[in-house]
Every structure is written in structure tokens, then in C-alpha cells.
TrEMBL record:
GO cellular component: cytoplasm
Coiled coil: none
Gene3D superfamilies according to UniProt: 3.60.21.10
Name of this protein: Metallophosphoesterase family protein
Organism: Undibacterium jejuense
InterPro entries referenced in this protein's UniProt entry, alphabetically: Ap4A_hydrolase, Calcineurin-like_PHP_lpxH, Metallo-depent_PP-like, Pesterase_MJ0912
Record GO terms (molecular function): phosphatase activity
Family to which this protein belongs: Belongs to the metallophosphoesterase superfamily. YfcE family.
Domain Calcineurin-like phosphoesterase: 1-211
A Pfam short name: Metallophos_2
Length: 247
């Protein structure tokens, strides 16, 4: 099974389209969307419907904090930009799409893998994995050999030895990384729809369950058009600027 791991799509039609086309070229057989399907971007209905279409064909999908925000009346815990985007987004979605979001799980177990949006210790609390300590906490909170998660918009790979020593690795795109069964792993694929590592190209990863090889990809897309659509929708200009700079 060659599994594509896409997270933090953030209603970016151009980025998702580019990543799906790229994944098809890689002969991906299965898809997992790790949450934050909507929020920030200008095409929430299109992006969510595309994910729903893939789920109908067997893809996996998780609840993210921006997806959950669509369902919440009290958004006091969100910053003003995120709150404005969520409120605008909700008005763009159909009743069927909102019902789809409401049914999303916070975690999925698949073989010896765990899929979550934010972390394994409290998947519905949206705490970030910002470094080695949080990665260690997440890996200790589950039994999975490999945990895949989003929420952090920067591609990162953590590994933990049998003695508990944990390290961090910044992956090189298109370089295959063998995930040894002598270690445990936490994989953050980066963001499809709103990269924040200084590179505006969309980011996702694939994992081959037969060879245990992980590969990160950067996919250029028309971020100028995506940014202009954000401005045309009346959303905060900072959201458009982020797509142009990748920060």
C-alpha cells in the first residue's frame, strides 16, 4: 500500500489539486487527510467536497481544529483572523458538508500506525508538537510504531529509540527515508494549503507500508491565484500574504 498523507489543506483548491495530481503520478493507492480541511482559504466548499469524494472511494479523513471550529458557537479561543475565516467558511458550506464534518473522528488506527491531527495524548485538545519533548510525549501516549499528524505546518520527522532517546530530523524532499522497526516514529508531513517553513510550495508525504519507506514532496502550485481569491473573498490580507511567502 502506498499511502499519501495530506494535512492542513485549508480550503486551498490550487494546492490540493496540484498535490492530488502529483500523488497520482507517484501511483499512490490510498489517501489519508489529517484534518484542517477548511479554514483560511477561499475554496472551502470545493476542497471539502473533493475530500468527501475521495472518502467515498475509501480515503481516510480526520477532524482538525479548524474543521471543529465550524461546529462551535463559541469561538473565543481562536485568534481574530482564524475566527473571521471560520465564520466566513461556515456560510460557504452546505448542510450535507457540515454534517460530514460533524461525523469526523479525532484519531484513526491503521495496522501499526496512528493518525491524528494534533497529537496522540489529547487528539481533541489541539496542543502542538513544537519540538522533541512534545514528540516524545505523543509517542509515549500510544502504542503505534508510527504516528502521523498535522497541525504543525512544517515538515518534520521525529524518531525514538528503544531506550527512549528521541531526535528530530528535517527531511529532504523526494529522498526516501526507511523507517526502521527498531525505532518509533512521528511524521509531520507539512501543510498542503498553508506552508509555514519559508517555502510556498505545497507539502505532503507518502508512506509505503511494504517497504516502510517515507518520502516527503514539495509541489509548486499557483499560489498567486489562491492568494488573489482570498483577497477577493474579503478575508484577511495576511492569509493571502502567507501563501506568497510560505511563512
Amino acid at each position: 500500500m502506498l499511502l499519501a498523507l495530506m494535512t492542513d489543506l485549508h480550503a486551498n483548491r490550487e494546492a490540493l489539486s496540484a498535490c492530488l495530481a502529483h500523488a497520482e503520478q507517484q501511483k499512490v493507492t490510498h489517501y489519508a487527510f489529517l484534518g484542517d480541511i477548511v479554514g483560511y482559504g477561499a475554496d472551502p466548499a470545493w476542497v471539502l467536497q473533493k475530500v468527501m469524494d475521495y472518502v467515498a472511494k475509501g480515503a481516510l479523513v480526520l477532524m482538525g481544529n479548524h474543521d471543529a471550529g465550524i461546529l462551535q458557537e463559541d469561538k473565543g479561543d481562536m485568534n481574530p483572523v482564524a475566527r473571521q475565516a471560520v465564520e466566513w467558511t461556515r456560510a460557504q458550506l452546505s448542510a450535507e458538508q457540515i454534517a460530514f464534518i460533524r461525523a469526523l473522528p479525532y484519531r484513526i488506527e491503521l495496522q501499526d500506525m496512528l493518525l491524528v491531527h494534533a497529537n496522540a495524548w489529547a487528539p481533541d485538545k489541539w496542543e502542538y508538537i513544537d519540538g522533541v519533548m512534545e514528540a516524545m510525549r505523543s509517542m509515549h501516549a500510544c502504542k503505534a510504531a508510527i504516528t502521523f499528524c498535522g497541525h504543525v505546518h512544517m515538515p518534520t520527522l521525529y524518531h525514538m529509540t528503544l531506550t527512549g532517546k528521541t531526535g528530530e530530523f528535517l527531511p529532504t524532499p523526494e529522498s526516501s527515508i526507511p523507517l526502521s522497526k527498531q525505532r518509533r516514529w512521528l511524521v509531520i508531513p507539512g501543510s498542503v494549503g498553508q506552508p509555514r517553513d519559508g517555502n510556498p510550495a505545497a507539502c505532503y508525504a507518502t508512506f509505503d507500508t511494504d517497504t516502510q519507506e517515507l518520502t516527503y514532496f514539495r509541489v509548486p502550485y499557483d499560489h498567486d491565484s489562491a492568494a488573489k481569491k482570498i483577497l477577493a473573498a474579503g478575508l484577511p490580507a495576511s492569509l493571502a500574504a502567507r501563501l506568497l511567502t510560505g511563512n
